């Protein structure tokens, strides 16, 4: 009995790169000599390898002195690498050498030998189906060539034996496939094998039989001549008698005999359709699947339902979508309802109708020349097919019809007409287009959103498929360890099953993160996904081959349109496609005309400028809609919700063809011009009642607009870049894409040449509006605003954003007094939106100065203006401001109601940053009403929005609110942590409004009071007061004064505290302040003074002016 390892968790692989795994995880074996030692032991696993053989393999002719000790040292290192628990029982010392005590299931070379013997035995016994499946399993163990550790270890004979055994098993597997009646799918594989082994006579014979069986008799005869020539030229010999006899059989048009075995596909195999019918039992020629079926369970059920109700169902989809696999799964699922079987005809290698019929006859084993009962059938192939099928209840799967779609349609139509109980399930990249056909377009596998939670991502079909196929090359693989890169891979590959499988196979040598990065590189996907299953058809072995197959089926007009479509990012409408196509054709005609004139001026020449190649002939207008419809029919383009788009893999391939055509620059320019004009037409509507429609239009084209802008900037087209930024500035603001707006406007402004002054002024305004706090400091923004004002024309009213930028910037920077003059300029603008916005900003200046009633009146006027115009953003901003007033007054319920109304408006706009700000304010209002749980839920939601959009200031503000909640609850440690994180995020920002820092410093001062650090509190509150008063913000000044009242109470000066509370009310302009600290400190001061004394000092404070109140606070 063989003694095997006591550590079955270890597996050893040598049929490819040398690899050891423990529970699916790779065990590192470092060092060339150590790997050679292991390779030698694995090669003869279970048997003793003599010491002499080990020494010769490891050191060759450079044997060191004391080699015995050196070998023992290597054995010790190997045992340590494999794990100390059972190392001595795994690498066993024998009297004559060493033995790797690993069982057959632990070593791939031993498992290969066992499977090979089993498959060959099944073949000899006539069980071709079992043989094919077993031999495929054996070949799947090979992951590459024999490792270098053996090739260079004096083991040439052993390496040759392994490679020869692999080739023999491949030939036996091919023989089994031939006996199963699957010749067409073997032709490409056999051609590849003969390229590598041109003197292998058995391969020549098998290729001849495959060609003949696929109905390609002429090519089969030519294959014999190729073999004869090869043997004569290389060996000086003739083919063997058996190959010559095979040739003669084909010349007589007799069916070639098998290789001394009886074909079978199961209990009644080898009998074809007629034999199966007479024998009973499960019938058909479906081959066993070697991988699990993942991700298309719903599609399987739906297709099976369609097939039960309709006689012709066609599965439509691009190459690699999984049509063939789904079709075979459906066929298997419905087999029980098909008494006469389910039969697969593979049509990839068929080129005409005759070949198609022969392929069907071959699949059904009804080829001419078969023994009775088929000998009496008609000689005409199609009539023979129909006669055999008539009266039978069966399913035929026509796989890969797209390249012979017309022929497939005719054959399917006549078979269905003449054989009423036959059903057909076809796969194609376009419909057959005949009466009675029902199509089901395979969608991509379900994809998780970017950044999905690992636990959620693992449940999506695309990720499940990746994980399943990854586990085949890295046993024990789990997605959760690198869910982010796996999601990125699946999304980059559009959920295309074949592409995902090819990517998963790369985990043999790359991490998921490396795969994801390479997919994002130019041409990366085609280089990376270039090694599929050796037994797959050639067009399914690489991602490029899959797409090329589809490309080669397009006519010239379809290819022209297809390559131009690659310039669209995120798809396009028919109108955009027609505009681009027409503009490109016009530009190309103009170029050709200019080139003709130049040539006539220079004299006759036969030369042709390649840059002017491509496009339709002069005067020949493309039927864009017709070509586009055909591209959709052929699964090259997807039509969805009014837009046409390409899968990214197809788009990448088409982009290569566009680059080769010489049209790239013309097409990109036409694309940029079109989308600039589209954005400019939409821009004014962003401030009117058309706002939602124009936002939707620009959002749908966001990727195209970004692509157009990128081209303008990279090509140095200054004016087009400024135009497009100018058209998108307010869109970026409304959508919350402010970092994008800041970056793109900076890049456009940096392009040499630029454009006219008004255009540059608008870009400066956009850069300031979007960039302050993200890219711009306050000082940089002031310089830009100065330049902007200098560029303005006194005769022409400025663009609304130019009118807005100065006042909004100054006000947000705390310059309320300075902003009043700028805001006043807006009142005379001819655009009612600018006037309403000026009213809104004037209201904010009143609030900042503590003039609450005046501010409220101006804001209500602005609200009316926005409602008249139909601008939701302006109305929402005005409502949010009014909500703050209600909350300050203690009208919390009303404040919440008004804020919810504002949120309804901005939610419809998708204004991320405004939504986050308003929800934060709503959370504070809910907290005032004691609805803390609701408030915290809101904060958690908006924290994620701020993080996703890169809004550091937004995140800082949310952290400060969490700090307030913690301080109110008495959790001082947590409060300090939140405030510290908030300040840290502010420090990381380029420009932070002083108001934010002042508010946090006031909170930190109160926290210090609560912690008993009164000196620290004084320093913080002095700073907060100075910051608030310097920017002239009465609301923040009042907050700092209230905090100073807390410090006064801590020092035992309750009278001062009461006066400061009264003074804060006056500064803020609110008679009854109800925030948490004001209420708490009022209660404490009353308790210390009594009601009458407290009221006396409160009134004293109310009678002081702001300067006196601030001075009192600073003395606290």
TrEMBL record:
The source's domain of life comes to Bacteria
Q: Which GO terms describe its biological process?
A: phosphorelay signal transduction system; regulation of DNA-templated transcription
InterPro entries in alphabetical order: AAA_22, BTAD, OmpR/PhoB-type_DNA-bd, P-loop_NTPase, Sig_transdc_resp-reg_C-effctor, TPR-like_helical_dom_sf, WH-like_DNA-bd_sf
Spell out the CDD domains in the cross-references: BTAD
Instruction: Show the SUPFAM superfamilies listed in the entry.
Output: C-terminal effector domain of the bipartite response regulators, P-loop containing nucleoside triphosphate hydrolases, TPR-like
**So what family is this one in?**
Belongs to the AfsR/DnrI/RedD regulatory family.
> This protein is called what?
SARP family transcriptional regulator
Species of origin reads Nonomuraea glycinis
